């Protein structure tokens, strides 16, 4: 199974940083967001990822490539640990880059990968969506797919005031962390939402979803092809299930959520965790 990682967005919420650097390379302490996402895919047994990119995003490919000049410099100065670290990154995963030449939405971004994902099921992991979990979030979906044979989306309960930001599902039967999905509504008002269960950045999809995307027309209001429209078709025709994923989710495309992610990951690290906690305690005393 290959994983599609859409990374073509401009990242305007992180300007001026993203004027020159893709938002997916924002560092969570010293590890880029995209690195954490690829590690999640690897934990689930995925060995090949497809980056959906745009102009100015070649740094993503460079990050997962070898860097002869840097490696020579580290080797010549005896910095063995750092040399092994950068070489390990290059050997992590097979990467394929596909250009999304027009910003026509998430559905279009996924469809751009149709020629490289093969004929079987494929994963989709949003490039600015982190899930801090003991067990790979996309791996949790793969287990549900293997058990049911159906397309699977990740679900999280969201507060009423945030419902309008997500695709929201209406649900049928429920078994453990798996729910049958009867329909999908893109960014409804809280009053019209069928539930508070939101689709959050992880999908394992059958080829029938790719076929549905082929026939979709762009939305008149946005000019985009919505993945949720294809999921709605999938729910009606082939069946769609949701997995209530375990783990803490961070929208790393949002400034406050990104800062929260940095602290959440940092305090668990043995090299910076305790000093950071002590620093925060002292700062909070002075507020």
Kindly describe this structure.
The chain is of the alpha/beta class. The chain has one domain (2-285): Spore Coat Polysaccharide Biosynthesis Protein SpsA, Chain A (Alpha-Beta Complex). Helices cover 34% and strands 25% of the residues. It has ten helices and 13 strands. It has helices at 33-43, 58-63, 68-76, 80-90, 106-111, 137-148, 207-214, 227-237, 255-266, 273-285, and strands spanning 2-6, 27-28, 31-32, 48-53, 94-99, 122-125, 129-132, 151-157, 167-175, 178-186, 197-205, 240-244, 248-251. Helix 7 (207-214) packs across helix 8 (227-237). The longest helix is centred in the C-terminal third of the chain and has 13 residues, at 273-285. The mean pLDDT is 92.
- Count of DSSP helices? 10
Q: Which overall shape is indicated by the principal axes computed on the Cα atoms?
A: globular
Strand order of the largest sheet: 5-4-1-6-11-8-12-10-9
The CATH homologous superfamily: Spore Coat Polysaccharide Biosynthesis Protein SpsA, Chain A
User: What structural category characterises the helix and strand content?
Assistant: alpha/beta
Number of domains: 1
Mean pLDDT: 92
CATH architecture term: Alpha-Beta Complex
Low-pLDDT segments:
none
Largest sheet: 9 strands, mixed
SSE succession: EEEHEHHHEHEEHEEEEHHEEHH
Radius of gyration: 20 Å
CATH topology: Spore Coat Polysaccharide Biosynthesis Protein SpsA, Chain A
Helix content bin: 25-40%
Q: Strand tally, please?
A: 13
Distance between the termini: 50 Å
CATH C-level label: Alpha Beta
Give the DSSP E fraction (strand runs of 2 or more residues). Answer: 25-35%
